[in-house]
Amino acid sequence: MAGILFIISAPSGSGKSTLVSELRKQVSGVDFAVSWTTRAPRGSEENGREYNFTTREEFQRMLAEGVFMEHAEVFGSFYGTARQSLKDALSAGHDLVLDIDVQGAAQVRAKMPEAVSIFVMPPNPRVLRTRLRNRSRAEGVVDEAEVFRRLGAARKEIENYREYGYILVNDILDRAVAQLEAIVLAERYYRNGESIAYRSRRVLEVAAACLQFNSQERLGPVLEAFGLLDSNGQQQLIFEEDSDEEDSEEEDSDKDKKDPHDD
């Protein structure tokens, strides 16, 4: 089987890390490129598992030596994906998933236009804010300034959705995982002729529904919520403060839907 490169991007807190983790539990032959970063570990993160943590000096040395296939500076920290990750996956005949931001994704697409690109969206700013706050609480501190900074950045990242072949709206985790699994299996079917067995027709239908040009109905409410769908083009993104009671209700709703609260 020829390996396929999958690029997954999303605003911070949209749940792409959880989606990738669940995908790898369901589908065999999918490798994950552990990125390098200069930021400090969060919570229970371990070196070599979520990220390879390094210093800015070491990162710059690796960059100068051409170690990375892509790199970007995000929120003051550097991130990069080593070329060796792709070499290892392809030599094993495995697919490779890159969990990278829109800057890195653009670099990879320019070098490898055959890569499959997937953009994951939160359903609306309110849900995204709740997930970011929950993640901050899990790390032992709630930094409201950081939460709102990431909310503002999310709108700019979502503006890049047209650059991606597939769109996922991560409002219900189980459904988003099934859609991501369908995309991987469908791409294997079309590119490598890999059988999907008895579920073939349904899997291909689910994947096709996630193609960007087939996602407008689901995209509309998300784009409107983030201030990106206004007839005059002047709608502004506004994040209103909510009471603790409203936040509690949102958290309960998120738990019922099994929403992820991570990168």
What does this protein structure show overall?
By secondary structure, the protein is α/β, with parallel strands linked by helices. It has a single domain (5-257), classed as Rossmann fold (3-Layer(aba) Sandwich). Helices cover 46% and strands 15% of the residues. It contains 10 helices and 9 strands. The protein has helices at residues 16-26, 56-64, 83-91, 102-111, 125-138, 144-158, 173-192, 200-209, 216-225, 244-257; strands at residues 5-9, 30-32, 36-37, 52-53, 68-74, 77-82, 95-99, 116-121, 166-169. The strands form 2 sheets. Strands 2-7-1-8-9 form a 5-stranded parallel sheet, with helices on both faces. Strands 4-3-6-5 form a 4-stranded mixed sheet. Helix 1 packs across helix 7 (173-192), helix 5 crosses helix 6 and helix 5 crosses helix 10 (244-257). The longest helix has 20 residues, at 173-192. It is globular, with a radius of gyration of 18 Å. 36% of the residues are buried. Residues 232-246 and 248-262 have low confidence and may be disordered.
